[in-house]
Design brief:
two-stranded antiparallel ribbon, globular, 157 residues, disordered N terminus
Length: 157
């Protein structure tokens, strides 16, 4: 992702805010404040509590782990599974086909989307794919499923 890549986060006021991209100046209260975590190379990552708060909004949460991982270990509640290998194709599908395949409305490029995986590696890749396709309000839960289960049990499939 280039220096102008945008990252969005949910502010305490309830609105989405743009975080400074890598290489941009950061003022008081910019990304990194208030318990926000940053994963490698400055890609913003949501904390457990931030993700939990977002789940009460209209955010689409996509788990990019393989289907067998979901079946064996469970999933974060209210997430949909689109394995990383299918993601680029899925995000370019016809909306009716997406709805049929994933039982979820196709996200618009301006809709908030959160990606997660087991521990942050694949969700970081998913973030890059989505950004390259023009999605502008994407985030990742960098702690992934491993972090979620430290706080609450998974949903079993």
């Amino acid at each position: 992702m280039g220096p102008g890549a945008r990252r969005w986060w949910r502010a305490a006021s309830g609105g989405w805010r743009r975080a400074a991209a890598a290489g941009e100046a950061r003022g008081p209260g910019a990304a990194g404040a208030g318990g926000r975590s940053l994963c490698s190379r400055g890609v913003p990552g949501l904390s457990y509590q931030e993700l939990k708060d977002l789940k009460s909004t209209n955010v689409l949460h996509i788990d990019v782990r393989e289907r067998w991982e979901i079946e064996r270990f469970g999933k974060i509640p209210a997430s949909i599974n689109i394995p990383l290998g299918e993601l680029v194709e899925a995000l370019q599908m016809d909306p009716a086909e997406f709805k049929e395949q994933y039982n979820q409305k196709m996200p618009a490029k301006s809709d908030p989307v959160v990606f997660s995986c087991l521990a942050g590696t694949r969700s970081k890749q998913a973030l890059g794919f989505a950004t390259s396709l023009g999605f502008s309000r994407v985030q990742q839960y960098a702690g992934g499923f491993e972090d979620w289960v430290k706080h609450e049990p998974p949903e079993k499939k």
